[in-house]
UniProtKB/TrEMBL annotation, chains A, B:
This is Alpha-glucuronidase. One of its GO terms (cellular component) is extracellular region. Residues 431-656 form the Glycosyl hydrolase family 67 C-terminal domain. It comes from Sphingobacterium alkalisoli. Residues 113-430 form the Glycosyl hydrolase family 67 catalytic domain. The active site is at 269 (proton donor), 342 (proton acceptor), 370 (proton acceptor).
Amino acid sequence: MNKMVICCAFLMVSFLVSAEDGSKLWLRGKAVSAEVAAKRQIVIHSESIVVGLASKELEQYWAGSSVELIVDKKLKKLKDGYTISSSGRGLTICAGEEIGLLYGAYHLLRLQQEGKDLQRIAIEEIPDYDVRMLNHWDNLDGSIERGYAGQSLWKWEDLPRTISPRYAQYARANASIGINATVLNNVNASPQILHSDYLVKVKALADIFRKYGIRVYLSINFSSPKILDGLENSDPSNKEVQRWWKSKVKEIYTLIPDFGGFLVKANSEGQPGPQDYGRTHADGANMLADALKPYNGLVMWRAFVYSPTKEDRAKQAYLEFMPLDGQFRDNVIIQIKNGPVDFQPREPFTPLFGAMRQTAGMVEFQITQEYLGFSNHLVYLAPLFKETLDSDTYADGSGSTVAKITDGTLRPAYKTAIAGVANIGEDENWTGHHFAQANWYAFGRLAWNHALSSEQIAEEWLKQTFTDEQQFLKPMIHMMMTSREAAVNYMMPLGLHHIFAFDHHYGPEPWGDRQGGRPDWMPWYYHNANSAGLGFDRSATGSNAVSQYFPPLDRIYGDLETCPENLLLWFHQVPWSHKMKNGHTMWEELCYKYDEGVQQVRQFQKVWDGLESHVDSQRFAAVQSKLRIQAQDAIWWKDACLLYFQTFSKQPIPYDIERPIHELEDLKKIKLNMSYHN
Amino acid sequence: MNKMVICCAFLMVSFLVSAEDGSKLWLRGKAVSAEVAAKRQIVIHSESIVVGLASKELEQYWAGSSVELIVDKKLKKLKDGYTISSSGRGLTICAGEEIGLLYGAYHLLRLQQEGKDLQRIAIEEIPDYDVRMLNHWDNLDGSIERGYAGQSLWKWEDLPRTISPRYAQYARANASIGINATVLNNVNASPQILHSDYLVKVKALADIFRKYGIRVYLSINFSSPKILDGLENSDPSNKEVQRWWKSKVKEIYTLIPDFGGFLVKANSEGQPGPQDYGRTHADGANMLADALKPYNGLVMWRAFVYSPTKEDRAKQAYLEFMPLDGQFRDNVIIQIKNGPVDFQPREPFTPLFGAMRQTAGMVEFQITQEYLGFSNHLVYLAPLFKETLDSDTYADGSGSTVAKITDGTLRPAYKTAIAGVANIGEDENWTGHHFAQANWYAFGRLAWNHALSSEQIAEEWLKQTFTDEQQFLKPMIHMMMTSREAAVNYMMPLGLHHIFAFDHHYGPEPWGDRQGGRPDWMPWYYHNANSAGLGFDRSATGSNAVSQYFPPLDRIYGDLETCPENLLLWFHQVPWSHKMKNGHTMWEELCYKYDEGVQQVRQFQKVWDGLESHVDSQRFAAVQSKLRIQAQDAIWWKDACLLYFQTFSKQPIPYDIERPIHELEDLKKIKLNMSYHN
C-alpha cells in the first residue's frame, strides 16, 4: 500500500515537471551536468549581487568554454551594455556597469539556445534607450485594466510578508531581454499606492527586482495630497502641496534608494490634474520633477489627453502640449502613445513626435492586446512597434524617425525612455496566449535595439521558446510576420479605427451608439459611414489633422491620391466608388481586405496544425484552441463590418468572396460578458 | 387627415399585394385580360364541380387557344390521367375520369408558365401510382411532429364552422401536381380523431378537398375501441372489437362517402397494436381491411417496427413482416419507409421491397426534413426519392426496381400507392424554407411519374416559382441537384447514419448517450467508432443484414471491396486505414467528405447571392438568411464529427482541409431548445 502511494506521488511529480504550461517563457536552457561544468570556469572579480547572479546563470546553464566577467567603470560609452569577446582561453564579458554583465550572460545563453556558433565572438551591445520600461495597469484589488492573463501578479494583501516566487521569475525574464524599469500600478491610479502601508510592499518588490537591475516606478494620482492627507487641494502652485510631494518622495527614497519615478495620467478621461486648478500640464509635471530631481527620479507625463469637444480627438494631444514646449524640467519625459487615438490595429504615428523640439518625448506602446483580440488572437506586435519607430517624422528633415527622435540621436535628453503596457498576469504562461509571450519579448528586444528586424526577433524567440527545427521556424516566422496585418485586415483595414464594441473593445460594433454618450467614444465618430462614403476627413477640408505633420507628410496624407492606402480612411472620407491602385473600388477593396484577414487566419490554423509533431502536446492544443477562436472572431468581424457598411454602400459583396454566415441583426444583439476583463 | 389615412391604407394594401411571401407556391400564373379571354373559348360538357373547376382555372389563367374538355368513360387505360392534343381549332383535353380534366388543365397552365411551345401538343399522361398521398403528422392540439413550418394547417377547434381559405389553397396546390390523398393526422394517433365530434370536422375538410380530387384518410390508434367506447380490449379477434370498427367505418362513410381509409402505426415505438393481444400485424390489418372493404377503403399498415432487442434494428421490419407474407387482405398495403432505419440522409433501400411477393407494398418518403436540417437547410429531395425508386432489388431479376415493385408493373395490386410525410404548416410560405416547396412539388410529380428526372422537376419548379431566365436556372438547377449530396457530406458521408442529437435530430451528437436509454436510440449503436475503425458491421461477420437482400446485392453489399463507398459504413465496420478507391484512407476520405460538404454550402451562398437581381427582395433575403444558417450548421457538423471521430482515429485531419473552429467539448455542451418542434 505504501509502495503504491509513493509510486503515485512520483508519477504526479514527473507529470508536473514535464507539463509544458509555458511558465518557462523563452528561458529554457538546460542545466549543465557536473562533468560539463568541471571543464570550464566562470570567473568574476566582484562580490556584487548582480555580478553573482550573472555568474550563477552561467554556472548553471552555460555549456561552452570558460567565461570571465569584468566590470570596467571607464567603459561609459557602453552605458549599461557590454562587450563579449573570445580568445584562446575562453570568453570575456566586459561592462561599464555591473548590470551589463548580467545582460551579457543572458546574451551568451541566448546564443547557446539558438544553436549559434560560439567559437569566435566579437559583440558590442549598447542599448538604444536608457529606460526600458513596462507599464502595469494593475489595480490594488488585483484586477488589471486591459489585462487578459488573469489577475495581477502583485499580491498586495500578502506583501511584504509573503514573497511569491514569481516576482523573481518575472524580474529574471525582464532582465534576460534588457527591461530595466517597471511601473507597478495602473495609470488610473489609486492614491493608496503612496500610503506608507503600500510603500513597504512596493519596497519588498523593489528589493527583489534590484538584483535584476530593475527599478520600480509608480503611477500616481494627482489628487493624492488632498485625498491621502486631507490637504485643501492638490494645486501644484500650493506650497503645502509641493511640500507634501517632497516629503512623500523622500519617504519613498528612504525605502527604495533606486526608485525610478512617477508615471502620471492627469486631466485625461476623468483623472484629476493641474488643470483642475487652472494650471498647465507643465506646472503639474514640474512640481513632481522638482521633488524627484534630488534623487535623479523621473516624471513620465502622459500625453493621452482628449476632451469631448468639437475638435478631432486625434488632434488634441498636439494642441494641448505644443504650447507648453520648452516649459518642462529636464527630468520630465512626455509619454506619448504611438498613435494619436488609442492603440488601434493601425494608426499613423502621433504628430507630437518631433514637433516638441525642447521637450523630451518617449513612445508608449501597448503590449497587452486591448484592441487586438485580447489573449485570444495570435498577433505578433514587433511589426507594429517597428512601424512607429521607423516612421519618418521629417521633423529635422528626411530620416527623422520616431526612433531617432526619442532615442537621443536627434534630441539629446537627460534620459531616453520607451514604455510598453504589459500583458502579464498570474496565468501559468504569464500572458494568456503562448504567442503573446513573444510580444513581451519583442518589446524588450526593441527597447534595447530598435534596429533589430521583426523577423530576427521572431526567430530568436521561436528558437528559444519552441524549437530550432527549420521546418517549424520557416512557416512560423511567416505566420508571426503576417499576423498583425491579418488582424488589421479582419478588424479595420484601410485605416478604419475604433469601431470596437463599447468598453471592452473585443468584438466589432461599427453600429455602436449610446444615448448621451461622448461622441468620441462612439464608432460612428470614427468611421463616418454614409451613402457617400466612409472614413474620417482629416484633410484640409476636414479636421485638418494632417497639418500637424511636417512637410511633406501633411501633403502626402492630405491628398486622397498620395495618402498611403493602409491609412486612407484615417485621413479621408472616401467615396465608395473611389478607385484604388489595384483597380478595385474602395467598397470592393474593403470587402477583399476583410476576407483576406479571414483567409489568413484559416491559413494560420493549417500551418499550426501541420506542425503538431514539432510542439509539445500541451502548448500545441492551447494554441490550436486559440486559433479556432481567432478564426471564429475573424468571421464575426468580417460579417459584422461588411454587413453594416453595406447598409451604406448599397453594393453587393463581390461574389468571389466567402459569404457572410451571420445576420447583421443577430450580431447587433451580441453582448459579451467581459466582467472578468477590466 | 382623412386623406392621409386613405393614403396609408392604400400603401399598405399595395405593399401586401407586392409582398413576395411565397404563399403562392408554384402557382403564379397571371389572370388573363378580358381581351385575351374573349379570343378563345373553354368548352365543357359536364356540370360536375371538378370539371367546372378545370374550366374555371383555364378561363382565369389560360392565354392560349380554345380548349375543349371531354370525359370519355371508355378511356380506362388512362386511369385518372389524360391526353392533350392540338388541332386547327385549338386544344382538347380528354380523360376517363372527371379529375383527369383538372389535372390536364394544370398541365396546360404549367406548360404556359414554363414558356413551352404550345402549338403542337400530343400528350398522354397516366399516373404511375393509384394513391398519391401526403401523410400529415399533425396532432389535434395543432402541433406537428417533425413539423418545421409552424403549427398545423388544420384548425380543429374552429372546424367545422370556420373554414380557412388555406384549405382550398392546399387542395388546389396538391391537385396541380396530382396528389389525390391526404392523411390528416399523426401516425402516433390520438383515438379522439375517430370521435363523432371530430368526424364532422374531418367531413368539412373532405368536402373541400373532394372538389380537387383528394380523398381524406385518417391515422388510427389501434386501442380506439377500448379508449373511445370502453370496450374490454381492442383485440382484433374480439368480435365486439370487430363490430366496433365496422360500425365506426360505417359512420365515417356516411359522412364522407369517398373516405380513403386508415393509416396504422401499430406495435411500434410504444403504440398499441395486435401484438398486445398475441395477434399478428396481419390479424390487426385484416380486421380493419374487412371493415373498410365494402366501401373500397384501404389500410396502409406501416412496417416501421423495431424493438430494443439484440437484433440489428435495420433487420427487424423484414424479420417481423416476412413470415406474414400472403396473410394480408388485398386492400391492405404495407407502407415501408424508403430505408431500413429512419429517413436518414442516405440509406440503402429497405430489403422488404420485393421480398414480400404476395403482399402489396408502398414507399413512405419523408418530405419534411427531420434529418436534413429542418426548414433551415436547402436540400432538394428528388434525388433521394429517385435513389430509392430506381434501386434495383433484383427480386425478380435485374431491373426489379423499387418503383416497378410498388407501381404494379411487377406485382399487380388491388391499389398501388406512395406516401410522403408532409412538410406543410401554417407558415405564410407553407414549408418554412422557400426551397422546401420544391420537395412537396417533387414528391407529387414523382408520385405521378417516377420516370421524371430530378433535373426536369427542378427546372419545372424553378421556372414556375421564380423565373425562366437561363442565367438563373442553370446555376440553381445545379445547386438543387447537388444539395442532397452536400447535406450527406457535411452530416453523414460514406454511409454513416443516425448520429443526430437526441430527440430533435437537428444537430450532430455522435457522442450521444443516455443512461439507461435504448441502445438503438444512441448514436454509438450506429457508428461503432473505436480504435480499430468506424461503421456498422452488417456483413456475414456482423449482423448479416446483407442476407436480407437478393443476390447479387447480398454479396455486393457484404464485401468491403465491392460495397458502394457511399454505403460503406452502413454495411461494414471499416478500419481507419482502409484504402478507398481514390487512394485516401477511410479516415482521410471521411475528412474530405465533411469538408466538401462545407465548401458546397459556401458555394451555394455565392451562387445565390450572385442571383440577387433575378429574385424578389423578400424571398432573396429569406433564402440568403437560411443559407447562412446552413453554412454555420455545416461547419458545426463537420467540426463535431471530425473532432469526435478523431478521438478514435488518433490521426490528423489532412492539413489542406479548412480547420475546425470549434472545440469538441464546447460542441458537446450545446443543447438546443427545440420545444417548438415536436
